[in-house]
Fold these 2 entries.
Entry 1:
Amino acid sequence: MTSSPMISRHWPAPAKLNLILHITGRREDGYHLLQTVFQFIDFSDSLDFALRNDGVISRQSNWEGVAEADDLIVRAAKALQLEFSCQQGVDIHLEKKLSVGGGLGGGSSDAATTLVALNHLWDLGLSVDQLVDIGLKLGADVPVFVRGKAAWAEGIGEKLTPIDPRESWYLVIKPDCYISTVEVFNSSDLTRNTPPIRIRDFLRDGGHNDCESVVKNLYPEVAEALDWLGQLSDARMTGTGSCVFAGFDNQQQAESAYEKLPQGWEGFVAKGLNHSPLLTRLEQENLEKEKS
């Protein structure tokens, strides 16, 4: 008689917003130097993990937009296996809510949740810094999701400093288009000389997204969403994705704006979070482990 696999359900992979995105220069290798602010929102993909002892890693999902072998979730699990000679395997089920190419960080967040969850479930005992090093090889945005704290980012996005911006309520609109990050960053119209600012400057005065003007010219759906939302609050694009957002003082104001969405538009309301739901879940798991 075989025992049932240990299943750990509902690990969150939260979305992020880039509250600002300033392009301050460009390195000789082509990478852009930037200043940005990552903040999480209470809107997440969800991952279930069913452990197995034969070393096999598989992924099932309600979204089939990428081949299993190329999925950052599978690549993250295999990176843990290879680097630390782990003989355990896992069946991973992804419930996808975050739009692909929307600038919400879905793929990177899924990978980070896989690293954090399997480090715990496989009992590998890796430090946050070790997980960050693995995550950085998977994608530039993975480390901020692994660390789980709202962050000021510099360099090419790898230099992270925890900060505590205001946790607004946001209305996020999802225009029906996919934006190519490469196209945006290669555009001759992209401003690459925004003067660097300090964290205190952002906390006092805010900032902007240098990619917006390029994207608005290339994607009229995004321009229309920004113009409409800008009538209600300070509207901005997140990262180089298609999603646009605006902050409100409370949930009622954000919900009221959501109810005004033009027919056929998609969006959602979510709370800004400086402490990631993934980090909260891990803390709960560790407390339960200490009690047992």
Entry 2:
Amino acid sequence: MAQRLLLRGLLLFAPLSATAQALLSTDTYNGGLVVGTFSIGDQTQGTGALFMDLPAGATVRRATLYAVTIGGQPDASVSITLGSIPVTFDASTAGPAFSCLYGAAVLHSVDLTAVLDPAIGVYTLAILGGFTTFKEYMLFTEYELAGAGPITVDVFHCGLDSQLEENYTLHTTLPMSTDAPIAFGTMGAYALSPWIDYETVTVNGTELGKFHGRDSNAGPGNFFGACATFHYANGTFEGVGDDSPDQAIAGADVLSDLSGLIAHGDQQFQVTYRHNPTLMVEQQQDNLVNMVVVAYSGLPCPTVQDLLGPDTTLCPGETLLLDATRDGAQYFWQDGSTDPTFLVTGPGTYHVQWLHPECTWTPDTVVVDYVTRPDLGLGADRQLCAGDSAVIGGAPIPGAIYAWSDGPTDMPRTVDSTGTYTLTVLVDGCPFSGSVTIIARDCSQAVELPNVFTPNGDGDNDVFTPIALQGVDRLSFTVYNRWGQSVFTTERPALGWDGHTSSGDLVPEGVYFWVLRYAFAGEPGAARTGHGTVTLLR
């Protein structure tokens, strides 16, 4: 496969965010990585060398200077020089933090990409006078070089509170190839000696060794600390000082090649740091692991499982964007579409097949379901006579949460007053709502007539008679044909109209008009008039 620029990314971190572990940055490009480190330990000033030997023709892709404070206030500050470059670390540069025996340990970072000179092989870092809690300094320089092979660099912050044993599962950005070394470097601090103060490092159950003391790879002026000074490019992994990287960690040479401890294509590994047992109780948890860097050759075809995600259930109206994007691939979805993404708007089984000139991936499938809207059992709007009641809401759904707009949470419930009752129910995390209007009226006074009757002698609906005629004191009732002629009149409408005229003649089918004049008891002077139509069918 032709060499090509793959991916570059920087994961920013929030100031003073305590976390067990975090991927600080990841980058995939064509070139190499040089890491130079320096520690002043318990000194208050010092001058050290940070190596940055770049090959001829290389350009600085990204350069980051990290610093770690141990103890003191989280907003501590220090001004230093890196060669002729002035650098200030303060609250604005602070990143992840964790606690230790000496107080807060805070990781700081400054971007030096624009000011680093690729022609300078060694930068002198100077901390001049005064008390400072800034102890470890690490310069990570990524460079690009024409014709160089691809490299992936992942930088992790390891921030468990200082413990006798710290365990991490580190996930790399790409699957790692064991055809080349897998550079593993630890940035550790306060590991003094091989007798009373050291750290044991284990990867995937295999003990790599113990580190302690001043890192000879770090160069002149380094008083204390083991900080993985190395160079990695084109599958070559080498310590800048005296270390020949292999699977062992010894003394201050905290470099290791992990290619013999993982399987080809793995994308994670387990790391354990254990502080040495000691009779000095105050040092039992003197375990300061700040950062881990992994540089490796990534496989071009990452075997990501469940790229579409797990099976899921959505609420009505929700959508789900399935993203199958893989570098250089073509896409074939279940409906024949060929975009890298697919928008789910309904339930179903969705799958994608990839086609790639160099990679073979099995299809990925995800089942998407939708929560069905439940029957809230509210029914239609309705009227009640004052004093009567109605039951609204259906049988409770197991696990559902109910809330009525007027406060109650019972289901179903009984109501007896006028109002619009809104019910909201939460089913499997999805909200559903509905309303019903109840009108409670005074039924002691009521006039209501039907709109159709069938006087055919079958004994069913043969008489046009009021549905409700309550509290009426006096009245008259007249029926008119379509020409406005009166065909029937009475002052006793409760007896009904049987489809004959007042003289006894049968009237034909059709629509008739009626007028009702009445007054309610207790309101003799308040005459009322009602009117409407009725259809006569035989």
